[in-house]
Amino acid sequence: MNPQEGSQMLHSYPDVTNAKKEEVMNDEKIKKIEDHSHCPVRLVMSRFGDKWSILVLTLLGDEGTLRFNEMRKYLKDISQKMLTVTLRSLEADGLIKRTIYPEIPPRVEYQLTDLGRSLLPNVTQMLSWASENMDAIIENRKIYEKTI
What we know:
Arc Repressor Mutant, subunit A, 2 domains, extended
């Protein structure tokens, strides 16, 4: 196949024009964006995009070791199911440790792991930023709502 006039042959794609190479590269970029395993930021942020994970992490950071029902007392509007799901997700990521004591009734405690503690300064900084800028964000949302 001959290249069209005005296009050049590419060494890695001998019969592909620049436009075709760009299309192939765009397809590869889209595949990478769609494949979350290539993006550590998306993987980590997907965990904290929910309503409860950051609150559970900061609670355990402040209080140390807590039992399930103690956490529910602090987080009054979380359901039992949602707290269970959140704790399991954080445990799966290695951010919290769950310890079961062989007692009757069984005692289960949760605490941050070293990995979870290493995340805390970043979470704290983000929470501080949110507190400092919440008024401006709310004001911007009001302005935006008026424009649509």
